[in-house]
């Protein structure tokens, strides 16, 4: 169904200009603090990892430094694993799941891999619980040359500075009820389109790359997460969020074409996780644990292929 809900900013059928974008920005509010909830967890990892700043958001460089955490004893003889979280800042378990992986599991893999984690790519979005950045731009549609999103630009610079190719990239996300109640209606309004209501799947799923789907790798991720939380079923059309389910709990997107974070490298093994935190069947801790399980399942599979 569509057209029954009108986002309060903008004129139906007309794309936003600068005035509407500013109006959208003015109605955002700070709801939690990156410096209190995320940065201390990052700093606590310094005893076991190399923690460095790879940039800062110009909106407030003191408030929004960008951190990356690297495994020690980096070696050209080990393949590189990239874990990213918080591309959409509001997707909480992406951030805290990435950090929990470092806290609880990553040490088991440093003999096999060089591990690089960027846990909170969009800290302004984290604080305002937003999908976009202050310019009403989605960083997760902005991973391409001359990107307008500085969140995406900073991560691309970090990756381009590596002296090795990335073998594995796991990008941690969530699908939430607010995708349909807030963020997709805002997107339709921004683009001057009608909002067409979709269905939020109840459960975990992954998004593979249409150009490189690696189904056995996706299966390993799903099977690992299945030990922690339930997997999203297909809807009556055999789809999840409007895309065909190609295997249990898996859909595919053209990562590079859409400018997604999942396409930021030329990795052999890649997946984008999607946790559903609004399900009555899960807790916040289980959401974080599901993200950890996704990374663990993926890495265990890759080790079996090395």
Can you give a write-up of this model?
Residues 30-306 form the Peptidase M14 domain. This is Peptidase. The protein is α/β, with parallel strands linked by helices and 306 residues long. The chain has a single domain (18-305), classed as Zn peptidases (Aminopeptidase, 3-Layer(aba) Sandwich). The protein contains nine helices and ten strands. It has helices at 18-26, 34-37, 39-43, 92-104, 123-128, 150-160, 178-190, 215-225, 284-305; strands spanning 50-56, 65-70, 80-85, 114-118, 166-174, 205-209, 239-240, 243-244, 250-253, 269-275. Strands 1-2-4-3-5-10-6-9 form an eight-stranded mixed beta sheet, sandwiched between helices. The chain has a two-stranded antiparallel ribbon with strand order 7-8. Strand 3 (80-85), helix 4 and strand 4 form a beta-alpha-beta unit. Helix 4 (92-104) packs across helix 9 (284-305) and helix 8 runs antiparallel to helix 9. The longest helix has 22 residues, at 284-305. The chain is globular and about 55 Å long. The N and C termini lie far apart (48 Å).
């Amino acid at each position: 169904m569509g057209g029954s809900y009108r986002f309060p900013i903008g004129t139906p059928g007309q794309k936003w200009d600068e005035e509407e974008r500013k109006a959208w920005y003015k109605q955002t509010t700070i709801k939690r603090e990156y410096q209190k909830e995320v940065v201390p967890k990052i700093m606590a990892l310094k005893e076991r990892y190399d923690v460095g700043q790879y940039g800062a958001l110009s909106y407030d460089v003191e408030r929004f430094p960008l951190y990356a955490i690297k495994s020690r004893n980096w070696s050209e003889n080990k393949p590189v694993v990239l874990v990213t979280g918080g591309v959409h800042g509001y997707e909480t378990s992406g951030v805290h799941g990435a950090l929990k992986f470092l806290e609880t599991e990553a040490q088991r893999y440093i003999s096999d891999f060089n591990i690089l984690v960027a846990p909170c790519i969009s800290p302004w979005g984290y604080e305002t619980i937003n999908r976009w950045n202050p310019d009403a731009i989605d960083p997760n549609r902005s991973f391409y040359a001359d990107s307008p999103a500085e969140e995406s630009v900073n991560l691309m610079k970090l990756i381009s500075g590596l002296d090795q190719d990335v073998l594995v990239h796991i990008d941690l996300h969530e699908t939430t009820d607010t995708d349909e109640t807030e963020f997709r209606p805002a997107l339709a309004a921004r683009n001057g389109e009608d909002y067409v209501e979709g269905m939020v799947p109840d459960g975990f799923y992954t998004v593979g790359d249409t150009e490189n789907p690696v189904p056995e790798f996706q299966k390993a991720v799903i099977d690992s997460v299945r030990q922690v939380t339930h997997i999203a079923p297909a809807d009556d059309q055999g789809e999840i969020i409007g895309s065909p389910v190609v295997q249990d709990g898996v859909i595919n997107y053209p990562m590079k074409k859409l400018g997604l974070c999942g396409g930021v490298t030329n990795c052999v093994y890649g997946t984008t996780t999607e946790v559903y935190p609004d399900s009555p069947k899960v807790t916040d801790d289980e959401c974080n644990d599901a993200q950890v399980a996704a990374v663990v399942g993926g890495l265990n599979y890759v080790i079996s292929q090395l």
